[in-house]
Hints:
The chain is mainly alpha-helical. It has 19 helices and 5 strands. The chain has helices at about 1-20, 30-40, 55-70, 75-80, 85-110, 115-125, 135, 145-170, 180-205, 220-235, 240-255, 255-285, 290-295, 295-315, 325-335, 340-350, 355-375, 380, 430-440; strands spanning about 390, 400, 420-425, 445-450, 455-460. Helix 2 runs parallel beside helix 12, helix 3 runs antiparallel to helix 16 and helix 11 packs antiparallel against helix 12 (about 255-285).
Amino acid sequence: MVLVVVFGAALLIAVLLSGLAARTVLSTSLLFLLGGALVSDGFLGLIHITPDSEIVSVTADLALFAVLFTDGMHVSFAKLRANWRNPARALGLGMPLAFVGTALITHYLVGLDWTTSFLVGAVLAPTDPVFASAIVGRKEVPARLRELLNVESGINDGLALPVVLILIAAAGPSSPHAEASLGMIGLELGLGLVFGVLMPLIVSGLVRFRLLGAEPKLQPLLPLAIGVILYAACHLTHANPYLAAFSAGAVLAAVSPESQKAFEPLGESLAELAKFAALLVFGALLTPQLFGDLSLGGYVAVILAIVLIRPASLLLSLLGTRIDRREKLVAAWFGPKGFASVVYGLLVLQAGVPQGQEAYTLIAVCIAFSIIAHSSTDVPIARLFHVDDLVEAGGGGQRHAQRSPPRKRALMHARDLARRCASVSADESVLRAAELLAGDEALALLVVTREGHPIAFMERASPPGRDAARFGA
């Protein structure tokens, strides 16, 4: 019960400071991490939690499932078909480079054997935008950058899991339940994908029956029911719950947009609660003894993994793309280690591999440093993007840019006079373009390519009582 009180107090403080956190380097994620560390055995001693405590694995597991489920709902298959190359590069080239690079510095700086070093690399390869929410959650950040980070982080968890399980088996775990075969790993991943695709399709089909249907005020609970059933089914059948969660969210958003829209506020709140609970519990594991157990070489490896390996890997993977230099640098920096790494690190520790304790210590310290570094820099970096208020609405990549507030500058720029202007993909139908012009306050409609580059514009007659000409953003 002490843990519940601490969580409630931390949640109250985080909510009261959330407005300040949205404008400064203060991070609500960091508050829960520090709060957990403060009440643990290392400091006040109010709660006693060890890495093998059930609450650690349960909270991390639930948080990762909830976050992936809601992240999946933000995936647009239409946008992915048009812009799949950049996420594919990050996953197909950037992630393996980060995996190998982390393994190399772990082996040579920490002294772990090659198998365990590659295991550490696999655990730290997945990224988590939850700890950089000002980047993936802020509308002023270009949609292309947000989509790259969101899709990469949503898929790389599932890609890293089979590698982690195989390397645990190769490292010679002493725990009997940790043994895994390639066939079993493939079966778990396949079942997770099947469950994640079929469950939303079945429920969506049931809703279409004439006698069935959700009352509007209960409609947000429909996706929640899918998530609860899916989580339980995966654990009962040993299917991979994380791949199931992400695929279910994506399929549900595709087949039932109205359910996704109704669930979004509730889903985001539940994911936040799960995230905060997991951060509090994980923070309780960050005792002075844990940091003292890591060697100097380990700290050098942690810093290199955060500031060199991830950025260099992603920058190399994005060579030759049309993403501008600033967006590339931001994407390269925001590769925070999150819930997937926590869960996989616990798997390593609980599997009983020969150098599992040393590997877990390195992983835990790297996650802690990453949370501090990335969740404290997301707001300042998000403000580097000068468009102050982009609000996405509807399909076809429509965006509305509102005029920037006055700035204290000696010179004015074009953006200071910019007014609202919608945009539409060049592949959209003329009917869709006409609907956007008719329903928006903008007098012009910017026509853009799949990569977001403007190629032309459409305009309509000025409404009565308004200026005949307006500036377009």
